[in-house]
Amino acid sequence: MIGWEDIYKVLAAMFPLYTALILGYGSVKWWHMFNSDHCDAINRLSCYFIMPLFTFDFTTRINPYKMNYRFLAADVISKAIILLAILLWANFTKKGNYAWSITCFSLSSLNNALVVGVPLMEAMYGPLGENIVIQSSILQFMLWIMVLLMMFEFQSAKRSLDSGASSLESATNCESTNVDDKSKQTSLLVIAKIVGLKLAKNPNSYACSLGLIWALISNRWNLEMPIIMEGSVHIMSRAGAGISMLCMGLFMAMQDRMIECSAKLVVVAMILRFIVAPVTVAIGSFVVGLRGDVLHVAIIQAALPQAIGSFVFAKEYGLHANLLSTAVIFGTLVSIPLLIAYYVVLNILL
């Protein structure tokens, strides 16, 4: 049973995040140290240097030969359900659109497995809980962040090409009234090529894969990473969560209001994070036959607060960063009582 000492350990892991957040907010709002260009540069540094090295560093430390593949299958099924639901909503409803589909996927799929998840799951279920949540984060780094980046790049490429096509059409609108339908539609082949090139240049695309390859080799032949290489990675990777929260504080300070999104959107974000995510994982877990504590851990880890990195990507691509920042800050604050409630209910029902 989780005790007050365990809750304190979780809070001790969370408190430094808000220290970085306050420093970022104060450096703009009170001390006027940075302008918008500086903030964008810091966020880009986090996105393309610190986060990939953090991902690589973390992945190299796991043992891929001792992973729970049934849990991983349950996670894949849950995300497939989410993607299918988002696809149907975006294409067959009046309010559905691609931009919000990306944000909904981020809110329902990416959680803070390491900072909050590891100490909390260890307190609740011991080494089993810690191992499962680490495996969840590996799958998140390797698959779901890649899916998110593909969606972001597709949105960016389509928007850019559509803008260029509109400009060309407006410049030549006197010459033809009947524009060929093909000229109005952005070529999927061109978009796919642009997306592929952008992802190839993005170190987040292969950071986890390289880390997993090293983990497979090192655990198979009992190798250790050279100290020079390890130190070179550590010097940047250790700043991962801190710089991400600092960027969030900078972003908040640049807005007219601290919370720049409506209460309705915040409620929707909390529903996606704390209800939809664990429900879909529960469905996937029942499909693959998870039982006992593994089932409990699978459901609870899906209800962990929003991943900090999701804000960094949203800010970099300019898509609903205000909502993601609110989801991270508010969701992390309310997550502890919600997760304890899940823990109690699951122990009673399952």
From TrEMBL:
InterPro entries referenced in this protein's UniProt entry, alphabetically: Auxin_eff_plant (IPR014024), Auxin_Efflux_Carrier (IPR051107), Mem_transp_PIN-like (IPR004776), Na+/solute_symporter_sf (IPR038770)
GO BP terms, alphabetized: auxin transport; auxin-activated signaling pathway; transmembrane transport
Listed Pfam families: Mem_trans
TM regions (residue ranges): 7-26, 41-59, 71-92, 98-120, 132-152, 235-253, 265-288, 294-314, 321-345
Domain of life the protein comes from: Eukaryota
Cell location: Membrane
Name recorded for this polypeptide: Auxin efflux carrier component
Species the sequence originates in: Helianthus annuus
